[in-house]
Each structure stands twice: as structure tokens, then as C-alpha cells.
Design a protein that fits this description.
By secondary structure, this protein is α/β, with parallel strands linked by helices. 33% of the residues lie in helices and 21% in strands. The N and C termini lie close together (11 Å).
């Protein structure tokens, strides 16, 4: 059925790997993967560090039911819930005078936060403004009913939540996040913080390759991947085959192309990448959907200086102290006032992970490692040294997702601009017609950009599919959303050829 079918997959991230493995599993052997970098995984990036491995990209499997990553991993008992991260009472908050905030206050704050989230899906759909407006409104409603601290401290806590939400949504500001657009996102029920028992998220790809399934043959995925192949053009104007060119002057023809690079790459390159160009509607969709930067800065300490029951550390500025602090800084160091959160890392007893997002993260990507390490350490000292003897980190590793031309950011979001432009995932279902009147491009509802060119002689379709987390209506920004997209697009090809064979 598949002997002469040529499929080229652009990108060896979660979507590309999932698509390739599905096709190989079903007997389509003529699969080629062009990967611009020197590794598989994309925004899943597991590296050795300190006593084990850490994740520079995706870290946890979020939820169980409806989560394809959980479904795949649980067959082999590869996941476990975090021991302490999900317990609100295990998070320490300190104010800008270096005093630990009473745990009953910080615990109640997190209870309110999660309480707002629990009922949020039913309230967001008809909210006209930003998610920042929505959450602020709901937060002060909850505070009025339960004044768990004084009003000034409540405002300071809200500022901490704002920064935390910018990490969750990968946004520069929660004022740009569309509340009604956020309603599209589906939360998978079950434990939201499942780790890989010290193996790292890269284990998911081993599962996809059947390495944990003794009764199945291991799929030869890595034999199909060509590294450092940067695609420079995809020409689908011909009625015969799609022509793909790379920056090192390699040219390859294919019957089908599955395009899986990030929305950040699309934003930067789509005008020069596709022939013919994408329609104005598709361009507006790429423009309207957001794609932000979230970076991790991970520190190794010579020993564990925090108690066993501590999940992480959070900093809460007063307006007055923050103003004075900013005035004391040299120009270019304002980013220090945006450091707010350090979390422990499962299976890494001497490691803390700091987070930055938005313009601040992009700025810090350009700073020297020594400046970043010293800056984070100074914040830890300022807020927590009254209560803990904090040694200086002995090692640091960090992500630079915006700086990397193969990603240009971390993950996607729904913005107010997308609402203003009236562009949503459903627009991916609308066809684009070429000058001859034949349907050459259509976008699959909920998932992927598909380019279809009919071959009158051979009576089969050439299809260019866009996969990846940003193409998923309900599970965008997640690995399981990316994996699902790759599998569904592979299944689209498989289903087509099965139907075609049945008609012969």
C-alpha cells in the first residue's frame, strides 16, 4: 500500500517524531525527517546535570485522562506524581524585607488561586477582556469573601500571581491573553505534575519507538532523521510533487510533507518559506496567535540547604521596596526585579530551578552566565538569607528559547489580537484555491495546516500538513498536544491510502 509513497517530515520535535513513528509502525518505510538542529526532541530537551538529568524544556506530563503522553507512558509504569510540588503548604514565600510570610497566608493564597482555576472553564467563554482582567476581578471577589491577609499584602500576592501566570501562558503580559480564547484550552483531569522517575522527558520518544515494548520491533526512527537540515523552501505549486530545499543546497521531492516547526519559526519565516504564499487569512492567523518565551535557569548547589518538605521559594515585593531596588540598580539590571520563583526538581536533591518570561527572559538570554548566576543568587540572599544559610551555586545551566533560530520562543497562546483579527483554530479548516481552481490548501479544523494538490494522472493527493502544539485547538502549549497532532496527521495519510486501496 505504501511502497512508493514518499513522506518528508520537517522537524524532529514531539509532533514530528510521533508522526514518523506512526507511519513506520503502519508500514510506510519511505519516511525522511529533516531536523534543523543536532538532536531529536525539539522543545523537549533533557540534559545531564548535577546528580541526574534536568529539563531545559517541557518537564511534566500534565494530567492523566485525555493525555496521550500519559496513555503511552502508563503502559510501562514510567510516571509518578511529584512528592511535594502539588502541596500548597510546601511553598515558602518571603517578603522584600527578608521575612518569611506565615504559611497559613501563602497556603490560603494558593488555595484561592487553584479555586479560581477550578471554576474558570465555565466563566471564561463570554468574558470580553483579557485574562489579567478576569483573574484580577475574580481574585478580589475571593479576597472580599475571605480576607486572609491585609489588602496591601493581597495586592503584593496578586503581583506574584501575575508573574506566575506569564509563565503558564508564555506571554509578555497577562493583559495580552484573551480570556475567551483561553477557554479553548482543555485541562486533562488527574495529577498535573507527573515526572519520568528520573529518566527525563526524552523517555517519551523511546516509548514511541517501541523501546519499552518487547513484543514489538523497535522502530528505526533515528535512521530516518537527517540532522542540521534547515529547510529554506517548500514549493507545492507543481501538480506532481512537493519540492523541498535546504540551506545546504539539498533538494528533495515528496508526495507528502508534514511541517512541525514552532509557531515562532512560522511567524519569522512563512513569507519566504512557501510557494505559493499562504493566504491572507492564514497569515493573519499566524500573526494573531501568540508565541512567547519562558526560560529556565537551573542551579546546582554544593549541598541541599532547604528542608525536605520545601517545594520551592517565592519572592513577594512591596511597591516601596521594589521602587528603591530598581533605583539602586545599574541600567540593564532591571530584570532582577522580575525574579520571583525557585522550584525544587524531582530526583535532583541539590538543584533549584528559576524562571523568567517575556521581554525579561529575552534580555537575560544575552547576558553572560556569571552575571545571571550572581543576579539570581543575590535575590535568593536578599529574600531568604535571614532564615537559611545559602551557599553559592557551583554550576548553572539555562535555556535560550527565543535566541534559538529553530524555535524563537517556547509555546503558543491565544491573544486579544487573535480575537480582534477573528482568527482561531477553526480557520485552519478553510481551503485555499490555486489559480487553476483546484483545491491546493485547506486547514484541518482544530489541528493542522494542510496543503493539497491533486495529481490528475495518478489520482492521489499531495498533502503538506502543519503539526505541533500551536496547531492543537484544545491542548496547545503541551507535549501531549504536539504528540497528538503528529499521530493524527500520520493517521490522515494512512486512512487515505487504505481507502484508496479499497477502491482499487
Amino acid at each position: 500500500m505504501f511502497e512508493e509513497v514518499q513522506v518528508l517530515i520537517v522537524g524532529a520535535g514531539a509532533a514530528g517524531i510521533a508522526a514518523a513513528c506512526r507511519l513506520l509502525e503502519q508500514g510506510l518505510e519511505n519516511v525522511t525527517v529533516f531536523e534543523a538542529g543536532d538532536r531529536i526532541g525539539g522543545r523537549v530537551h533533557t540534559v545531564e546535570f548535577a546528580d541526574n538529568v534536568i529539563e531545559l524544556g517541557a518537564e511534566y506530563v500534565h494530567g492523566e485522562r485525555g493525555n496521550i503522553s500519559h496513555e503511552l507512558a502508563s503502559r510501562h509504569n514510567l510516571l509518578e506524581g511529584s512528592k511535594i510540588l502539588t502541596k500548597n503548604e510546601n511553598w515558602i514565600f518571603a517578603d522584600s524585607q527578608g521575612e518569611i510570610i506565615p504559611r497559613e497566608q501563602s497556603t490560603e493564597l494558593l488555595n484561592i488561586y487553584h479555586g479560581i482555576y477550578a471554576v474558570m472553564p465555565n466563566k471564561l467563554t463570554d468574558f470580553e477582556g483579557s485574562f489579567g482582567e478576569y483573574f484580577t476581578q475574580e481574585y478580589f471577589k475571593a479576597f472580599k469573601e475571605n480576607p486572609f491577609t491585609n489588602f496591601t499584602r493581597a495586592e503584593e500576592f496578586l503581583e506574584w500571581i501575575r508573574r506566575y501566570e506569564c509563565i503558564i501562558d508564555s506571554c509578555d503580559s497577562w493583559s495580552e491573553v484573551c480570556a475567551s480564547g483561553l477557554a479553548e484550552y482543555w485541562i486533562c483531569p488527574g495529577n498535573p505534575l507527573l515526572n519520568w522517575k528520573g529518566r527525563g522527558y526524552k523517555t517519551l520518544f523511546e516509548v514511541l519507538m517501541n523501546k519499552f515494548t518487547p513484543e514489538a520491533n523497535e522502530l528505526p526512527l533515528l535512521e530516518k532523521v537527517h540532522f542540521k537540515k534547515v529547510v529554506s523552501s517548500i514549493d507545492y505549486s507543481s501538480e506532481n510533487q512537493i519540492i523541498i530545499k535546504t540551506t545546504d543546497n539539498l533538494e528533495r521531492n515528496a508526495d507528502h510533507v508534514i511541517f512541525t516547526p514552532s509557531l515562532g519559526v512560522l511567524k519569522e519565516q512563512h513569507n519566504n518559506l512557501f510557494t505559493p504564499p499562504l493566504s491572507e487569512l492564514k497569515k493573519r492567523t499566524i500573526q494573531g496567535l501568540g508565541f512567547g518565551t519562558v526560560d529556565k535557569i537551573i542551579f546546582e548547589f554544593p549541598y541541599k540547604w532547604w528542608p525536605e518538605d520545601v517545594a520551592g521559594f517565592n519572592v513577594v515585593w512591596s511597591k516601596e521596596d521594589k521602587t528603591k531596588f530598581l533605583q539602586s540598580l545599574d541600567k540593564g539590571n532591571e530584570w532582577l526585579a522580575e525574579v520571583f520563583h525557585f522550584s525544587t526538581v524531582d530526583h535532583q536533591p541539590r538543584v533549584l530551578s528559576g524562571w523568567l518570561t517575556g521581554p525579561c527572559a529575552k534580555h537575560v538570554e544575552n547576558l553572560a552566565d556569571s552575571i545571571v548566576l550572581d543576579g539570581f543568587y543575590d535575590i535568593l540572599q536578599r529574600f531568604f538569607s535571614k532564615n537559611f544559610n545559602i551557599p553559592k551555586p557551583i554550576n548553572m545551566i539555562r535555556s535560550k528559547w527565543n535566541q534559538d533560530k529553530n524555535f524563537r520562543g517556547s509555546y503558543s497562546l491565544r491573544t486579544l489580537e487573535s480575537k480582534k483579527l477573528d482568527v482561531w483554530a477553526k480557520d485552519l479548516a478553510e481551503p485555499i484555491i490555486n489559480p487553476t481552481g483546484k483545491p491546493v490548501i485547506s486547514l484541518l479544523y482544530r489541528y493542522h495546516l494542510i496543503v493539497i494538490s491533486k495529481n490528475e494522472t495518478n489520482h492521489f493527493l499531495q498533502i503538506l500538513l502543519f503539526g505541533g502544539e500551536a496547531t492543537n485547538e484544545h491542548y496547545y502549549s503541551t507535549v501531549h498536544g504536539a504528540v497528538e497532532s503528529g499521530i493524527r496527521e500520520a493517521d490522515r495519510l494512512i486512512d487515505y491510502y487504505r481507502k484508496r486501496k479499497s477502491q482499487l
